[in-house]
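Quarterly update from the structural biology core.
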Amino acid sequence: MVETKTADTASTAPFRLMPAAERIHLVRDALSGQITANEFVPSEGGYLELPIISVTPDALVYRVDNGRILSELVAMSGNTGLSWEDVQEQAETQQVQSMLHELLIAKAKDPAGPIFEEFERHAQQTAPLLIRYDGVVVNGNRRLAAMRELKASDPSRYAAFDRVSAAVLPEETSLEEQEYIEAALQMAPELKLEYGWINRRLKIRQHVQDLGIERILSAYRFKNREEAETELRELELAEAFLDWCGTPRAFEGLSDDEEFFITFHAQLEALPDDYIRRVWRLIGFSMLKAKDELGSRIDHYFPFSDPEPSGLIQWVPRTMAEDRGLAERQAPGQNKAMNPRLVDRLVPLLDEPAQAVSIARNAVALIDTIKSDEKRILGANRAVHALRTARNALETLNSQDTTSDQLRNMRADLMALQEIVQSLSGGEVRKPTRDKLLPRIVHKISRLFGRGG
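Predicted structure, tokenized:
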């Protein structure tokens, strides 16, 4: 997580911001000189062969739409009172460039891709940056930040950083083409420093908006469209959670939570109805917010793992509604399904971020209860379901569909079921009535035997 500072503190970045016209002049002047080497970069139409120039670092500026620091920049801009739109409009001001420098230095020092350490040790640039004709860095922002920082710290040792090597895109390269090249270069699987999961999804969304999803599938190495759309929906779920918490854009707090959101999203998508999805989304939000105070890992509980037993999907929210006086208490063995009307009454009581710990503990306790006492809580309901399934299957049959042996087996099983049900009722033999489930099965089998009702 990058610690943000105020704009005044960040304004001490070790470089002078050069006007755009002056930058363009320096780049064009370098291009008109002797070009001794070329660089190849991937584009949508194949590799581009680009000239490499040598320029002063002051002729370059950081690109504001930088995928590796996008969420951190959004958060930092909020701390300085700037909107994201302000940051984009003021991208080439000293304030915004200083903010970018601070965030890029932190990324350059990341142990997972220690660019700063490498430059500090060898004092040598080994690969050219990729820039536009106006000096905006498309690829290599971390390297530029590291070279600037080291040069300022020790001008003699890092004198080689007085000049920067850069490959220059043609002036006619469109913004869409630049976005595609950036995606192909930075999002490839062999990156030394991977994008954080939130930054990756933010950048995917931006690229989809700029380029369209079909063009992005290839650049990001997606197998199919659904993979890309799933990542975008996971981002939407994370953003909805932050909004619910009252901390919009605080993405840095979710840096270690990728697996939670991947599983959470998948489990919500698998639920059968939108109304039950509404309930479990809020329960999941409470569990996420309270995860450090629960005393147990939330990835052991639905909706952050598979529902075990599956009956908890209905039983847990139904019991929460009963505990809050919204529904009659059901008897052991029952598992009445939620319905849209009951959900509408329960949702406002769960949509309380301030009560997240209490709601999460309630949900975890209920899940533990049904796991430990599943037979008592759900056993009878499952038996009724099995009997109803058998009845439905029998009602599709007629005498031509069965053999005498099959009918004999049905009759034997039915007699055994009658004895079990009678034992469950204390041995009392009750007069059969056709509105009861088991007598209806008896009636159907009797008809199949040709004996009437």
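The chain has three domains: 7-237, 257-376, 397-448.
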